Amino acid sequence: MKYTGISVAHIESGARCYDMKMAEEINRRLIDHCSEMLFAPTSNCKRNLERESVTGKIYLTGDTMYDAFVRSKDKTHDCDILDRLDLAEKEYALLTTHRAENVDNPAKLKGMLKAIQEAEMKVVFPIHPRTKNKLKENGISLDTSKIHTIAPVGYVEMLKLLKHAKMVLTDSGGLQKEAFWSKTPCITIRDRTEWTETVEIGVNFITDVTPSKILQALEYIKENYSKIENRFKGNPFGDGNASEKIVKIIREKLEE
Question: Who contacts 177 (Cβ-Cβ below 8 Å, separation ≥6)?
Fold first, then answer.
């Protein structure tokens, strides 16, 4: 679009994990440096953009994902997924994993899943098609394990599962934030994250795929659960009105 002379605006601008092996990291850096308007979801994202001396104008607007969360969280009251899966509040863990570095290597995948079963509780696993295929290709069965695979679920169902889980284990970027807003401790199965705010607050624990690190994080959360619950204070991701702010800024730009 930049080549055609069309102005570029980037929502969720400035998010950085500094892992250039990730396609997302490469894409967001390129887009940020091509954008005329950069909408940063957090103060940390804004600082990242300032350090990189981007040429576009930076706006601290908050996170549009939080807007969606705020507008959807009350819909979970009418969601019956806990009953359908026979789940009790805070007596299960929630798992998602799909990244190539976690699921493409059979030994890593087996080690990760074995460690997660040490949670000593039921683990609900809405399974990504990529991960499902890798399990099948490598002859990895979870049929007799504590990990209960289910088909991918909708947004409101996932929010319900997140809200009532004891903890979440994930390699997703967005789910880390949704876990934070749901006040659910998170284990991030990556070696770094773009959402460092949640790590600094002490509710998101980075382990990568190493089984010993996953086990250590599981034990820490179980032993310090009450302490971690008290850390969910404040919200660095805005006030739930980022979308309105962004639309207002774009409209004003177009009227210039």
Answer: 63, 65, 66, 195, 198, 237
What is the pLDDT tens value at each position of the chain, 256 positions in all?
A: 556 678 899 999 999 998 888 888 899 999 999 999 999 999 999 999 999 999 999 999 999 999 999 999 999 999 999 999 999 999 999 999 998 888 999 999 999 999 998 888 999 999 999 999 999 999 998 988 899 999 999 999 999 999 999 999 999 999 999 999 999 999 999 999 999 999 999 999 999 999 999 999 999 999 999 999 999 999 999 999 999 999 999 999 888 7
Active site residue 148: no
Two domains, one topology: 2-63+238-254 and 74-229:
yes
- Helix, coil or strand: residue 200: helix
Let me know: does 3 contact 22? Beta carbons within 8 Å: no
Is there a contact between 197 and 238 (Cβ–Cβ < 8 Å)? no
* Topology annotation, domain 74-229: Rossmann fold (3.40.50)
Model confidence, pTM: 0.93
Q: Where are the domains of the chain?
A: 2-63+238-254, 74-229
CATH 3.90.226.10 fits domain 2-63+238-254: no
Give which of 175, 152, 174 is closest to 165, Cα–Cα: 175
- The active-site residue, picked from 10, 33, 98, 128, is 98
Burial of residue 3, with CB atoms counted within 10 A of its CB: 0-12 exposed, 13-18 middle, 19 or more buried: exposed
